[in-house]
Amino acid sequence: MESLAVNCESMAVNWEALDALVIDFVKSERLIEEESSPPSSAHPPPSSSSYRWRLLIRQIRRSLESGDIDSAIDLLRSYAPAVLDDHRLLFRLQKQKFIELLRKGTNEDRDSAIKCVRTALAPCALDAYPEAYEEFKHVLLAFIYGKDDETSPVANEWSERRRFEIAGLLSSVLRAHLHAYDPIFSMTLRYLISIHKGICLRKGVLSPITDLTERLLLEERDPPATLQESLYEAPPFDEVDIQALAHAVELTRQGAVDSLRFAKGDLYLAFQNELCRMRVDASMLDELIHEYCIYRGIVDSDPVTSDTGLQVTSGSLNVDQLNPGSCLSENCSIGSNSDMSITSGHMEGSLQSKVDVMSTQHAEVEMRYPCDITSPNEDCSTSGTRQPEEKKVAQRRRSGTGERGKRKRWRGRKEDLEFISEAFTGSVQHELSPTKVLGGTNIDIQKSSMMYNGSNKMDKYEIILGMKDLASKGMAAEVIEEINALDPDFFTQNPVLFFQLKQVEFFKRVHAGDYSCALRVASSHLGPLAAKDPSLLKPLKETLLVLLRSNEEAIGKHLPLDALATSIQVAVGRRLGIEEPQLMKIIRATLDTHSEWFKLQMCKDQFEGFLWINSLKEHGTSLLGDSASKSTIDTSTQGSSQVTISSSNTRMQEDGGSPNQTSSSDIGCDENAIIKVMEFLALPRADAIHLLAQYDGNAETVIQQIFA
């Protein structure tokens, strides 16, 4: 258990990519307030259609789970009538309606059940599927065996579990039929947690995030949607796709074949269908997202202040300005309502372009304090200058207020039937009272915000967000001054962070062409720090190499400012008693086990680009080496995200794979031979490779030896 915990703590994450995924999630699920703008019939909101379909599916699920079959059928007839053309589904719905009418127990409902049998159930049983008529005759026994008789031959028909089975089945069918897939982040989280659980089970260790993952990702899955035609025909699919899908989402080979057939051979559609079958606790996910959004400054942390509504902050948030990587998944569609599919290539290209934009923006940061070189012995660093306390407080307030004005207001979920109807008629009202449900449960927003409602804690959030903002703009001197004013001993206990900030100052001087000032910063601070910590000597040399490069190069090429800003935020936050959000712990741990899993599999994850997992692992050019980074993690910030990771260990392979992955070709195994052994022996990929390695990569020999 200790080994796993250390690995999880040392995993570096691209938090800006996570910000983009989270912003996409809250926009897609309408968890934040949007600016009110008149709807345009010619150009509807890009994600409105998919969002409405997801609301419809949730309402149908709730109706079925509560036994209200008529309401579910009415919604299907109004919004998805093609689904009812499948008589298999219609028969199951009518059979459940018959049971629910009998369950009510009144004479009137019994008469309605008889009418249901005559007019709906019996006709459906004739052509639904071969076994339907036998099931029809069997369910009629419910007339004489009551719901409380647990030994009756129809006890299973009476079971309320049948409601949840048919609700899950209809959800699977509707998601695929309407292309109403969950936001990318929701699917990414399910995938990462399922791999995390699997590898912990395989290694026999207890995960440090077990309590979170067990409550967040539920054990049950929705039943798979299948086509009507025979399931025994030969599959026209590539065996590589079959095995990839089977092992990615824990399916049998036949289950993967069925899933691909339902998706008409589209591997990524099948993958989405299977991921969305995994159930998550929506209310818990919303709470984790809310906590993260407050911590990262995406939404305002102010609680409810009156009974008349939520407090409105000045200004409004343009999500693309807050995080250039926020244009994801369905929010990037700009066509008709039917254009809701997502391609991994589009998403990867989108993120790369946005990251480039961020780097350019960071390259243009303003140097507030130009160096005065009148004295040749003067230290060019501005960190030691002391401003009046009033000026520092005003500066902190300005930096905090500006960013705060851009934040959105959290609104939570409102998913009652009335809202569903309004959504489909285009008259959605965004104004909510402060007691609307959050995350599908009756949680008062005011109560859910109590953890943030102390003015002292509010101030702490604003302080760390202000420092994060300054650091992300390259204002290292201002960050150092702010931190020293807050805690003079901070950098004594966090020398690596101080070194990184001084690196930022050095690079800015070089970029401005002021080499004398840059060298004074290096000799006054970087050199002494490296003398005390030998692990900093190598990064010091790498830093000085910048002197040989053109000062026209963008500063963003040398400074992973966003990663440094997050390290500052986490470290300062902990000194102020603000722990990092639980979502950050989940992502760090699951990304670590994802990398470990595909090292064992000796291949790259072909779905990681689609789910942005490779983007979450991407990092810019690092400032420090491995040993310094490890020291920082272990002794300074106790697991905060670090900028100090060696490029040799964090750079992605040219094909987009995860770092340090061993290819099967490295040990002389042909891909076709691996697939053949996996298929014939029903083995995991890693076991198939190990067997092939023992027999010179000959699949036939392996199979013969196993069956000999």
UniProtKB/TrEMBL annotation:
Residues 394-411 have a biased composition (Basic residues). Residues 374-386, 628-651 have a biased composition (Polar residues). SMART domains: CTLH. Residues 57-109, 460-517 form the CTLH domain. It comes from the Eukaryota. Residues 373-411, 628-667 are annotated as: Disordered. Pfam families: CTLH (PF10607). This is CTLH domain-containing protein.
